[in-house]
Amino acid sequence: MLSINISSFFFKVPSRTNNFNPRLILLFFSPMASSTKVTVEYAKSGRSSCKKCDEKIPAKSVRLGLVSKHPQGFDQTKWHHLDCFPFNSDFVSSVEDIAGFSLLQNKDKETLEKLISTEIATLQKVSDADSDKIDRKQKETRAQEDSEHELSKQKRLKLSATEEEPVLEIAFSISDVRDTYKDAKLLPKWRAFQTIIYLEQGDGRHASSKIAAFDFDGCLANTNVRRVGADAWSLMHPSIPEKLQSLYNEGYKLVIFTNESNIERWKKSRQAAVDSKIGRLEQFIKVAGVPIQVFIACGLSKIKPEDPFRKPKTGMWNIMKKQFNSGVPIDMDQSFYVGDAAGRQGDHSDADIRFAQAIGLKFYVPEEFFEKET
Question: What is the number of domains present in the chain?
């Protein structure tokens, strides 16, 4: 996938001498040119909002995004309607270099090409006499962007980043707990409730105000959907056992929240899917050498109504919080979640980061959390 660097502000160019092209100066000397990119795609749903007008971006409509590097290491995208995109503050030299442009339909390519051409023509008309005005404009734009960033941060703290509907209250009853998941038998100490399978408390899986939560596949364990079996996994990072043991010794409750739709999907081989998933988890816990609470969401994706336990839905967290932490209030400032599905280029989804945002947890990607110096 191609991407281009864009500038975040304009330099003042005193005069055009020695055949210098001011637009090239803007492109190659901006300090933000290496950290911010432009991407275009069709909106996957109607949940995202334009960062300029705050209106919803309709599903399947063209949206432009500013992609920048989050301090925690993953890419974050600010989506805009086409006519809301801030071309006046961000330089784009060619639509052919915008990530995702080649995937657009021809009519949408033409629309975007005209939009970019118009913007470039406008920039070319800017004279040296207007440079002071441009500086003031860019300062105002940066101040506005800083304000928007702060507002976005406050929204995340208020758990509104995912723009999801209110949390569905789930009535948990011990009479609804089973030692089988549909027609598949579970190992001792594993139980099923609705569409989740969980590992019971006990054996050191204590309650705590501090929760260290993790995804499993692609985060703690290197697995492959084409390989089945309890032994078909390896550690994602060598430092994982030591890191988890350190957290446990610091008083953290360790929890794994993992999606596994194959358990529901493989109706004729459900027992094999259950044995494979639980077997891997039990082997991982032995390798880690530390007690870990586990919740497996077995529901399918893209169904209506949506499964309340499958990430990014927060059903697994809510069950853990209300039923498996002995009533101990959770300190959200000290708790966190680590997952690989952060919506970055190459990630299979953004379910993990949306899960953390919906709950209000600090979020880390595994390479940042397990590879940084301790």
Answer: 2
Taking the C-alpha atoms of residue 5 and residue 30, their distance in angstroms, rounded to an integer, is 10
- Let me know if residue 320 belongs to a domain: yes
Query: Within a domain: residue 227?
Result: yes
Cis peptide before 86 (omega within 30 of 0): no
Residue 262 sits in which domain range?
174-371
Residue 166 within any structural domain of the chain: no
Q: What is the pLDDT of residues 207-230, one digit of tens each?
A: 999 999 999 999 999 998 778 899
Predicted confidence at residue 168, as pLDDT, reads 61
- What one-character-per-residue DSSP string does 49-85 give? B-TTT--B--TTSEEEEEEEE-TTSSEEEEEEEGGGS
What is the Cα gyration radius of the chain?
Answer: 24
Please tell me whether residues 148 and 294 are part of one structural domain: no
Half-sphere exposure of 281 (CA within 13 A, CB side): 28
- Can you give the pLDDT at residue 91? 54
Q: Does the residue 13 lie in any domain? A: no
CA distance 95 to 98: 5
Q: How many residues does the chain have?
A: 374
For residue 163, the tally of other CB atoms under 10 A from its CB is: 15
Q: Are residues 147 and 180 in the same domain?
A: no
Identify the pLDDT of residue 130.
59
**Owner of token pair 């290197």:** 222
Q: Is the pLDDT of residue 156 over 70?
A: no
178: Cβ contacts below 8 Å, ≥ 6 apart = 191, 192, 193
- Domain identity same for 147 and 187: no
Helices vs strands, H then E, count in the chain: 9, 14
Structure-block tokens of residue 130: 């207007």
- Closest of 314, 280, 294, 159 to residue 213, by C-alpha: 294
**360 lies in the same domain as 259:** yes
Of 26-35, 181-190, 262-271, 319-328, which range is least confident? Answer: 26-35
What is the CB neighbour count within 10 angstroms for residue 351?
21
pLDDT of residue 304: 84
Question: Which CATH number do you get for residue 349?
Answer: 3.40.50.1000
Q: Could you give the 3-state DSSP secondary structure of residue 273?
A: helix
Looking at residue 90, which CATH number applies to its domain?
3.30.1740.10
Q: What tens digit of pLDDT does each residue of 99-150 get?
A: 888 888 888 888 888 887 777 666 666 544 555 666 666 767 777 766 665 5
